[in-house]
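Not sure how to ask, but would you mind making up any protein sequence you like and the tokens describing how it folds?
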Amino acid sequence: MTEDELKLEIAIMLYKQEKISSGKARAWTGLTVIEFQHELAKRGLSINYDVQDFQSDVRTLQSMGLL
């Protein structure tokens, strides 16, 4: 296993345990959003996005006049 592969595995493990955000995991590994999502999908995982995240996003969009 290369250093980059090990870094990716650690980042995904920490992300899965909700210890770091996807943004921090991507920054640490150097992956783009799409690349990170692809790596999660290969492991049967998805982006942590719950009802509270959705409601927060809706409020943000409303405050911007987009909804």
The chain has one domain: 3-63. The helical segments are 3-16, 22-29, 33-42, 51-63.
